[in-house]
Amino acid sequence: MSHASSPSVAVETLPLIRTLGIVSAICGLIIVGAYLATLDAAKANRQLAAERAVFKVVPSAKTITEYFLVDGRDIKPGEGADAPAGAIKFYAAYDAAGKLAGIAAEGAAKGYADTVRVMFGYTPSCQCVTGIGVVSMRETPGIGDKILTDTSFLANFKALDVKLNKDLSALANEVKVVKHGTKTDPWQIDAIAGATITSRAVGKGINDAAQMLLPKLVPQLQRLGTRG
Amino acid sequence: MENKPGEGCETGGCHSAAVPIKVVALTPQTPSNWMEFAEGLWERNPVFVMVLGMCPTLAVTVSAINSISMGLATTFVLAASCWLISLMRHMIPKEVRIATYIVIIATFVTVVDYAIQAISLDLYEALGAYIQLIVANCLVLGRAEAHAARTAPMAATMNATGMGLGFTLGLFMIGGVREILGSGTFFDIHLFGSNFQPWVVMVLPPGGFFVMGGWLLLFAIIRKRKEKAALAATEMEVQHGA
Amino acid sequence: MKGTLVELRSSPHIKRERTVEEIMRTVVWSLVPICVFYVFQYGVSALASIVVVTGACLWSERWFVRLGGQAGDLNDWSATITGLLLALCLPPGFPLWMGVVAGWSSVALGKAIFGGIGHNIFNPALVGRAFAQAAFPTAIATYTPSFLPGRFTEFIPSSLALPLMTPADTTAWLHAKQLDALAGATPLAKWKFEGVLAPAGDLLTSLFSHLPVGPSPLLILICGGYLAVRHFLDWRVPTAVLGSAALSAWVLYLVDSHHYPDPVFVLLSGGLMLGAIYMATDMVTSPVTPRGMWIYGGLIGVLTVAIRYYGGLPEGVMYAILIGNAATPLIERVTQPETFGTAVKRGREKK
Asked: In Å, how far is C121's CA from the nearest CA of chain B?
């Protein structure tokens, strides 16, 4: 601005606003374009990732459907949308014959380094957790990540008891992580020696999610029924 | 357009006798596009020489593939935003230039973010928040402010691409070493068999510092040796001359 | 004109000729009995570990001194001390190749990058151990029982792991030798994860059982006492470290004696004795002012107890001393005595 010599004239605001406006408009167009162009691929990726995670914890599953538990009462199909506030996401997994094989849900709790997110599979027939997988974690490699490989730890989840109490308001027995070698009950998790904190995070993640989800879900299991 | 003062000269424009003085004044200052491109690759490497953008450098370089992906994502953001900024450099008032640059950079970061989600969700999870954090990578804003804002689009894009590839190279050199020692693999190929003992520290954040420091040490040693050799050579010359 | 030459010197006029080299050599000699007993406890593996780790330290020192033109030499014995201390605070069956990595990085990361002898801010041996802890967390927690039969003729299998390869499983090895009964975690890990306390007498001498522990605390006390009496180390630092560790452990023990171990166990287990006497007292990385030494030692003792009780790992001496090292410049600044004659009040000077 070569003519900014007169001191009484304030900085011309119009060019500033105009520039920012034009730039923002261009940028907005670019962003929307990129969003639309990648939407389908990203959605497919997410679906694939969810299926992979669910199939791991409910091995007999062949197809999955996403559901939300809204306001702690209603079960609504997810249909690929983002979860509304306060809703809990879970997946109903169906076997080859279209029968409900299990429920997969995600739990999270603070581990040693960061939040440990686990996916667990719930089998209605035995009212127990029958498989877990880790969605994400940043635990110390070689110690915390034993939760993925330690066979005696994974044996805890062959049939981890998560029965509900009589009036279906909470779990009959809280899922508890106990010191290595002291497991006595089917609702206890035998921790990995030396990786107690990470083991505890897995247990707490499952317990918290099960406490919230199962009391609401179990009475309505019939509704999920079979897949048409 | 005064976009290509340097190129005009190279293609023979210098011989035009109309403004010889101007051309002489411009020639030494205007590097060719190739020089612009090569600058960032090694001579002024963003990681090892300018030491810019340390946050992703140390955080995501746990494997070679992560490093290269992060580097290429940054390269795209750098090149695209420098091109756009350079294109608009005459219409951006200096009072709002930082705001404008950030808007432009954030746009391309968002584009990259969507693109990586579409390409691979695993990669997206592995890089985590560091994709979004490219906005705050001082390399990008630094190049926009220091170079693209005063250079023609072609040269600015070349330079930004070079810088981005230099950044990628730096990340790869760190990530490769960390993956080999930290996981015993290179691009997920096992190098030492199943009995390999991983160096856990290498995949933890301190490993990034150690490897980065190791490379810097190596470069310092090489530079020192070269300087010594050059000094010895000149001394020899002086002695012979005397 | 002979005899008229007068040498003028400023004070101090009485000086004791004690060179760095002499101090270091004496410390090395005082470590010899500890090392010998350690080899007696664990056999050839311990011997190999001491030799290899110390060798790696010397090699690293040599390389960096030549490379960077730094002051220092192998003759000043400092790298030898680093190597011996590092070997003593690693498990006896620590794979030798990892020992080389630890030894090499202790001098490289702990000393050379700061500019060589006298410039380091952290104790090099502990830097090496910290690196090994971060790189090989499993191997560094794998202890084998002491006084195993046949220890002088047979290596602990994990020692001989091939470079870059995972060490052999010592539990299986013990099982094959039908020594399962002796196997177990270190006393600290046993306390932390299983709530079992080892008897104090065993911990003190490390002589009457097969406890998987480091060198004998009693022997360290004797050798350290010798150094303190001859003023090769300042008695204040170990006293402060052990005193504050015992005091904080005692207070917690009074609060909840079921949950927390007694102070004697805290003093005698793990590497506290070795750390307090040989590592916290490192002249370069500890404060020089007497008041500073008390603060520094007290900090280390309290931190050790805090990390042991509330941290994720059973042992905390290493990180406590490293944090103490880091705090040293600050402590020295705060405890700097005022120079005589300059302590004028900073108020208005009225006359």
From this structure: 17
